[in-house]
Amino acid sequence: MQEQLFFNIDSAEGGVPRELAPGITTTVFSGEHAQISIVRFEAGAKGTLHHHPEEQWGHCLSGSGLRYQGDEEVAVKAGDFWRTPGDLPHTMVAGDEGMVVMDIFAPPRKAYKQAGSGFAAGEE
Questions:
Q1: pLDDT tens across 74-113, in order?
Q2: What are the tens digits of pLDDT across the range 29-78?
Q3: Are 55 and 85 within 8 A, CB to CB?
Q4: Is the separation of the CB atoms in 23 and 6 below 8 Å?
Q5: Is residue 92 exposed (0-12), middle (13-18) or buried (19+ Cβ within 10 Å)?
Q6: Cα separation of 65 and 78, whole Å?
Q7: Shortest CA distance to 104 belongs to which of 54, 66, 65?
Q8: Are 101 and 93 in contact (CB under 8 A)?
């Protein structure tokens, strides 16, 4: 039974797939009170500016890019992490080598509990 509670960052097993935008895919793993999304950006891929009520933490696992959050643009690289308060507009653009980001949502985003596409802004 415990093996159902263990996952691997390089495997989609046990997760829910979503295509967020062209060149940006994620696999989402949901718990009762938090949710992890492993987001993979192709080189130069750009997300859509969006917001949602859930708090979000992000951690750049590899690569680099730009984080747009509110009125600011911040360069991020592997090892950097950040907090995005609920309802703050945000998006990202990957650098030339692409990027992998782990996002953590609390509470879990309802729309991300099922396969689909887009950032699900306004669908909660």
A1: 999 999 999 999 999 999 999 999 999 999 999 999 999 9
A2: 999 999 999 999 999 999 999 999 999 999 999 999 999 999 999 999 99
A3: yes
A4: no
A5: buried
A6: 9
A7: 54
A8: no
Evaluate the CA torsion angle 48, 49, 54, 56 in order and state its sign: positive
Q: How far apart are the first and last CA of the chain?
A: 31
The span from the CA of 110 to the CA of 107, in Å, is 9
Assess contact for 52 and 121: CB atoms under 8 A.
Answer: yes
| pTM of the predicted model as reported, rounded to 2 decimal places | 0.93
Supply 27's token pair: 């696999």
Residue 111 contacts by C-beta under 8 Å, 6 or more apart in sequence? Answer: 120, 123, 124
Name the E strands within 1-124: 16-21, 24-30, 35-41, 55-69, 72-77, 81-84, 90-106, 116-117
21-31 per-position pLDDT tens digit: 999 999 999 99
Q: Residue 59 is encoded by which pair of tokens?
A: 């951690």
